[in-house]
């Protein structure tokens, strides 16, 4: 049985770590977490993937046990459906537009944590978007000192087009600090969005 120690990991890392092991073919997993939210998220994920689930509270954490019966014929069907869905998704151009370096309204500190978590999750979930556009204070995510640089570089290496608004970089006087992607202008950004089948404003 594979053990996934997700104690101390922020959302969505417990789920992503569990998914990686599931994708690798593990059918028996013990996921150790340290809070009720992580437990609930891992349980929901396990149920979604047809795992039998149970939990046990111990002194050193909450143990989530995931187990599913192996069905070779089922695995083939699931793989074929997944490939079919990926083919459909790849034919549709999609992307994200980031208008801020924070996600949501309210606490700025929480907003920054949520944005980092969002970009990390995008970098761990395929298929990747075709593009990511950064506007206004969103350009701060693509420059030196950003907590999301590693994840954005991973996405760029995976084929994602990453562009930052040149006017915005100039406004914040951080043009020379750009670390990932390229500088773009509003004309090209509008073209990019117009040609997309699905653009989500973050």
From TrEMBL:
Pfam families: DsrE, TusA. SUPFAM superfamilies: DsrEFH-like, SirA-like. Residues 2-65 form the UPF0033 domain. This is UPF0033 domain-containing protein.
């Amino acid at each position: 049985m594979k053990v996934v120690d997700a104690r101390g990991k922020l959302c969505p890392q417990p789920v992503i770590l569990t998914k990686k092991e599931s994708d690798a073919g593990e059918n028996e997993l013990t996921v150790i977490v340290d809070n009720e939210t992580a437990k609930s998220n891992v349980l929901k994920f396990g149920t979604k993937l047809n795992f039998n689930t149970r939990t046990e509270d111990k002194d050193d954490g909450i143990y989530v046990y995931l187990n599913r019966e192996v069905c070779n014929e089922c695995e083939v069907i699931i793989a074929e459906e997944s490939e079919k869905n990926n083919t459909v998704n790849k034919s549709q151009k999609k992307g994200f537009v980031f208008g801020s370096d924070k996600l949501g309204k309210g606490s700025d500190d929480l907003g920054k944590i949520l944005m980092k978590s969002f970009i990390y999750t995008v970098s761990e979930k395929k298929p990747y978007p075709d593009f990511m556009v950064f506007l206004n204070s969103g350009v701060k995510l693509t420059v030196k000192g950003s907590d999301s640089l590693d994840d954005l570089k991973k996405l760029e290496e995976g084929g994602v087009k990453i562009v930052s608004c040149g006017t915005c970089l100039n406004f914040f006087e951080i043009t020379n600090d750009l670390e990932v992607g390229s500088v773009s202008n509003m004309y090209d950004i509008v073209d990019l969005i117009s040609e997309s089948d699905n653009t989500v404003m973050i």
